Amino acid sequence: MASVMSVCRRCLVGSLRKGLANAIKNTANRLNHSEWKNINAVLITKTEIYRNSSTISSERPVVKTTIDEEELRKFALLSQQWWDEQGEFEALHALNQIRIPFVRDGLLNQRGIPPLDITQPLAGFSVLDVGSGGGLLAEPLARLGAFVVGIDAVEENIKIAQIHLQQDHKIAGKVKYIEATVEDMLVTEEENFDAVVVSEVAEHVTDHAHFIECCCRLVKPGGSVFITTLNKTQASYFLGVLMAERVLHLLPAGTHDWNKFIPPEDLQYLLDKNGCVTRLVHGMCYNFLAKKWSWIQNTSINYAVHAVKIDSTKSGTTSESKFKNDSSST
Ligand SMILES: C[S@@+](CC[C@H](N)C(=O)[O-])C[C@H]1O[C@@H](n2cnc3c(N)ncnc32)[C@H](O)[C@@H]1O
């Protein structure tokens, strides 16, 4: 199954992702969200450009990918476990304790206007959840009122997320899951989201520079990028990989490849290069006995970043003081 998927993916890349673009088009046809109205026209135009250009090899667009097939195989094998709160993804379930308020407060502070309905504070926000897995983050964000598009490169994850979503009819129409990568989404969704959330994914992709560039291009000017990931330090190797995977078995062995970790300074540099100004960097700490995450100043293992895309039509989009009351502050 995995090798068939891998061959399929190579074919898709070889044909400039026409098949995948069609898959997005089919999903987009079912969307109600107003921002998706023109999706068909744009997709057909882009696909047409690709088809025409493929006959002239020198004009072929270069298709970069953020996919690491080995990483995807690992997640495909674990796909049945997403919603087991005591299973392999226990730490990710627990991470919602702090990452949901982090995203919620970041968005509300950035907008600067209190929500009309405190039970649906994110109403009106469109969020792209990159590497959405089983939907652990997408569902709670939708419960807060956001319209969420979850994308994941693993078909099995998308299916599990879609099935689980049906269990809560209140949010079923507010979340759409698509088997896609950030580069696929750029075909039709450039600058289309109020927020792009990338939680525990950056450490699994190839080519950080290209990945972050795509994420930033998907955000509207004035919108936010939220990233949680792992720093590339000796501490993250010993605690985040060796202890977590081999000794404490908090994660399946082989989940993380330390070489793919990224220091916060490098992440900030890439965000900045793509027009996104970093507003917050927090360290995160997991107490595996209490199964609780907390914010800490030390970013040497896990950390979170909130960056805001510069809106050149407005001056001084955000003041740092807005973040004083952020619930995620240490
Ligand atoms: C550790 S999981 C995090 C899932 C989810 N964000 C959460 O925190 O609950 C990483 C996810 O990223 C997905 N993924 C890895 N590489 C990807 C890529 N290049 N494009 C899209 N998704 C990717 C995997 O399939 C997996 O579901």
UniProtKB/TrEMBL annotation:
Swiss-Prot/TrEMBL GO biological process terms: methylation
UniProt-annotated binding residues for S-adenosyl-L-methionine: R99, G131, D152, S199
Pathway this chain belongs to: Cofactor biosynthesis; ubiquinone biosynthesis
Record's catalysed reaction(s): a 3-demethylubiquinol + S-adenosyl-L-methionine = a ubiquinol + S-adenosyl-L-homocysteine + H(+); a 3,4-dihydroxy-5-(all-trans-polyprenyl)benzoate + S-adenosyl-L-methionine = a 4-hydroxy-3-methoxy-5-(all-trans-polyprenyl)benzoate + S-adenosyl-L-homocysteine + H(+); a 3-demethylubiquinone + S-adenosyl-L-methionine = a ubiquinone + S-adenosyl-L-homocysteine
Essential cofactor(s): Mg(2+)
Any single Pfam family the record assigns to this protein: Methyltransf_11
Main location: mitochondrion
Domain Methyltransferase type: 128-227
EC number: 2.1.1.64, 2.1.1.-, 2.1.1.114
Keyword Mitochondrion annotated: yes
Keyword line: Magnesium, Membrane, Metal-binding, Methyltransferase, Mitochondrion, Mitochondrion inner membrane, S-adenosyl-L-methionine, Transferase, Ubiquinone biosynthesis
Entry GO terms, CC: extrinsic component of mitochondrial inner membrane
Source organism, top-level taxon: Eukaryota
Top-rank EC class of the record's enzyme: transferase
Transferase among keywords: yes
UniProt membrane topology term: Peripheral membrane protein
SUPFAM superfamilies given in the database record: S-adenosyl-L-methionine-dependent methyltransferases (SSF53335)
Subcellular location: Mitochondrion inner membrane
Residues annotated for Mg(2+) binding in this entry: E200, E203, H204
Complex and partners: Component of a multi-subunit COQ enzyme complex.
Family that this chain belongs to: Belongs to the class I-like SAM-binding methyltransferase superfamily. UbiG/COQ3 family.
Function, in words: O-methyltransferase required for two non-consecutive steps during ubiquinone biosynthesis. Catalyzes the 2 O-methylation of 3,4-dihydroxy-5-(all-trans-polyprenyl)benzoic acid into 4-hydroxy-3-methoxy-5-(all-trans-polyprenyl)benzoic acid. Also catalyzes the last step of ubiquinone biosynthesis by mediating methylation of 3-demethylubiquinone into ubiquinone. Also able to mediate the methylation of 3-demethylubiquinol into ubiquinol.
Protein name in the entry: Ubiquinone biosynthesis O-methyltransferase, mitochondrial
